[in-house]
Amino acid sequence: MSTSRVPDAIDAVVSALTAAGVTPVYDGPVITGDQPDVAVYVGYDGDPTGDMAATAGWSQSWAALGAQRKDEQFDVLCCVVAYSGETGVKARRDAVFATLADVEDALRTQVNIGLGLPQPTQAAFETGQLFQEQGPAGLQCRVPFVVSVKTRI
Fold first, then answer.
1. How far is 66 from 72, CA to CA, in rounded Å?
2. pLDDT tens digits for range 3-41
3. For burial by CB atoms within 10 Å, which of 4, 6, 45, 118 has the most?
């Protein structure tokens, strides 16, 4: 029996978004290289000064009598970020929400994010927050969001 499906779920969210044509999608934070104008991060909330958490923790409970199966719930932290060397907020905000719509559409069309049977799995876009940040390199609009996963191990 697996200890947790967290690693599989993170991989599956990355794969589901990539297969749906949401680009670019990164598994965790980008360490080096040029940042694209708009990007989706899975397992990272987009805050370079944050704690770099990939999940908001998880919980498990027995699915039935006996020690055979467990139900597991967890939240995968994700983020859509739109960068610009300009200071105009509207274009970046529109870009981040257009990409967020693509993310949500991809998750709606593949509710089990490829984890499916034999374990019943559901994943859904649950919560988000908008940040509009001016920095020395220009503007960043950032929407950290949560993909909530319910599965069985």
1. 16
2. 888 999 999 999 999 999 998 999 998 877 677 889 999
3. 45
- Please work out, in degrees rounded to the nearest 5, the angle formed at the alpha carbon of residue 75 by the alpha carbons of 32 and 13: 60
| 122-136 tens-digit pLDDT | 888 888 899 998 876
Quick check: 94 and 142 in contact, CB under 8 A?
no
Domain regions of the chain by residue span: 6-152
Q: Per DSSP, which regions of the chain are E strands?
A: 25-27, 38-42, 55-62, 70-84, 122-128, 131-135, 138-152
- Residue type present at position 76: V
Dist CA 92 CA 98 (whole Å) = 10
Any idea what DSSP says for residue 54? S
CATH 3.40.630 fits domain 6-152: no
- Cα separation, 10 vs 27, in Å, equals 8
- Residue 107's nearest CA partner among 16, 3, 27 is 16
